[in-house]
Amino acid sequence: MTLRTIKGPAIFLAQFASDTAPYHSLKDIAHWAADLGYKGVQIPSWDARLFDLARAADSKTYCDEVKGILAQSGVELTELSTHLQGQLVAVHPAYDHAFDGFAPVALHGNPTARQAWAVDQLKLAARASRNLGLTAHATFSGGLAWPFLYPWPQRPAGLIETAFDELARRWHPILDAFDEAGVDLCYEIHPGEDLHDGVTYEMFLERVGNHPRANLLYDPSHFVLQQLDYLDYIDIYHERIRMFHVKDAEFNPTGRQGVYSGFQPWVQRAGRFRSLGDGQVDFGGIFSKLSQYGFDGWAVLEWECCIKDSEQGAAEGAPFIANHIIQVASRAFDDFAASGVDQAMNYRILGL
What we know:
By secondary structure, this protein is α/β, with parallel strands linked by helices. The protein is 39% helix and 14% strand. An 8-stranded parallel beta barrel has the order 1-2-3-4-5-6-7-10, surrounded by 5 helices. A two-stranded antiparallel sheet has the order 8-9. Helix 7 (159-181) links the parallel strand 4 and strand 5. The longest helix is centred in the middle third of the chain and has 23 residues, at 159-181.
């Protein structure tokens, strides 16, 4: 296996974009990110202050302008994201009102039209990614079965299978669109989505025929909160990991609460997202494993913390990631001791 050096540091702009400078335009936020030491930015495709998805899908000229704006600041575009639109590809009715806010106002209260809009958004993202010269794209799977996560009351026979059959039916044409564009669609494995761990990803992957574009965005923070072995996950799924969110978390159960955390707000939960270095994630182990398996994508900060301010988290994030990126070896460490024997010598050593 060829060792490759991970690219970075980069930053996901979704948690920082706002109506105030320097977060209100692509040019200004790119300068802000570069000044902090980031080399790449990941753009939320739904935020019109930063990006016009429909225009990018239809205009290579506009895409060149976007890349030019970033280049002037000294950063690259790592990927686009459709997390919010992907969520709307599959929504259980229990969440209709909560997720309406992810869609245009004209679609509120109309789940059928909202879902059709979301599918179109994903297909636009496939074309936009191709026009931008990108190779990977971030999204959520949405969820039809999520309300039935805990098996009480007892689930009717076939309920989960039917939900995953339908999820696959909805996503297969989207995956085909990304395949046509030459871009990997990377699902962020995340609670609230039907694809929230390895087992559910495999259930989905089987139903889409092991589609070559149905790949993974690796974010260890969501596995800490589930108490899933996030290092073993890399060993199992490294061939499908095409994106990487660098996000920290901690899990501190007590006699009062555990994984479910008793409906408490984030700061009072046993499982909490933290700024980089403030949580429990073994990033040394993660960067080592990803480098070992030849991952050469971007290490992208997704900042979320229930305690620390975002400005401090962003400022600390770039050097944290940079210090964890491993410049992989160009030769074996023990080459100095190589004996230089040939095949004939190998036969003699083995007595053959």
